[in-house]
Design a protein that fits this description.
Layout lengths: L3 H9 L9 H23 L8 H22 L3 H5 L3 H7 L7 H5 L5
Length: 109
């Protein structure tokens, strides 16, 4: 959805040839979550006042954790994932995208 530009940047922080580490996961999920929220805020603009920030934080963290697992499952090392385009990595994590209902649920009612 909104994290495309940051996926390659996030993977560049995960550059150990021995495979994926707990630190890779922490770095990826943390950076991805921040980028997701910033992108969401930029997209929503003034309507952000109608968004439940706690739900947004939880949705972003869930999306990013799922994305990390999807990418890690497909590629043996961060280096291997880094050889892919951002679009390819987003396709790998497509099943992690929140549903329209989950996004609608972010609005304060």
């Amino acid at each position: 959805m909104m994290v495309s530009a940051s996926v390659a940047l996030l993977l560049s922080a995960c550059s150990q040839p021995e495979g994926w580490t707990d630190q890779d996961r922490t770095d990826f999920v943390g950076n991805c979550t921040s980028s997701y929220i910033l992108s969401f805020e930029a997209t929503m603009g003034e309507m952000m006042s109608e968004v439940n920030k706690e739900k947004l934080d939880n949705m972003a963290a869930s999306y990013c954790s799922c994305s990390f697992e999807a990418i890690k499952d497909k590629y043996d090392t961060p280096e291997e994932a880094f050889t892919r385009t951002t679009d390819e990595l987003l396709m790998d994590a497509a099943d992690c995208e929140p549903t329209d209902e989950q996004i609608d649920d972010l609005l304060i009612k």
